[in-house]
Amino acid sequence: QEADSVEKTVYLSLLLDFYGELLTEKQREYAELYYNENLSLGEIAENDGISRQAVRESLLRAETVLRSTEDKTGLVERHNRLLAQIDEAEALLAQVGKWNTEHRNDPELLSLCRRMQAKLDEMRL
């Protein structure tokens, strides 16, 4: 269950990165503190002079907006698929580089591999 909780927190933090601007200022602030800074509901409530329940309700509304937006756009899902494809491309590129080192030792092929890796690195940003 703890792993599910961590996974949920990471997922909501990613949704917040993508769609945080769609939240109210307070929702975004509380979500940042809760999901990214790991503050408890009580700590957030105490810092802002409101009830723990008010923070919880604000976070639930924020989560609804974030999840609903992802359901409609699918940007985070596409982002995650792209990262997985980059990982696969890097693994294939590593195999090409290893084959070149073991069989050809072609400097031009090595240069191309380095340039391709640089492009994959850019894609991660």
Distance between the termini: 32 Å
Quaternary state of this entry equals single chain
Overall pLDDT confidence: 95
Distinct helical segment count:
6
General form: elongated
Low-confidence stretches: none
Q: Describe the largest sheet.
A: none
Structural class: mainly alpha
Residues in helix, %: over 70%
- Strand proportion: under 5%
**SSE topology string:** HHHHHH
Radius of gyration: 21 Å
β-strand number: 0
Descriptive notes:
- With 125 residues, this protein is mainly α.
- Helix content is 86%, strand content 0%.
Please provide a brief summary of the model.
By secondary structure, this protein is mainly α. The chain is 86% helix and 0% strand.
Top keywords for this entry?
125 residues
What does the secondary structure layout of this molecule look like, with pairings?
Blueprint: H1 2-19, H2 25-36, H3 41-48, H4 52-73, H5 75-104, H6 107-124
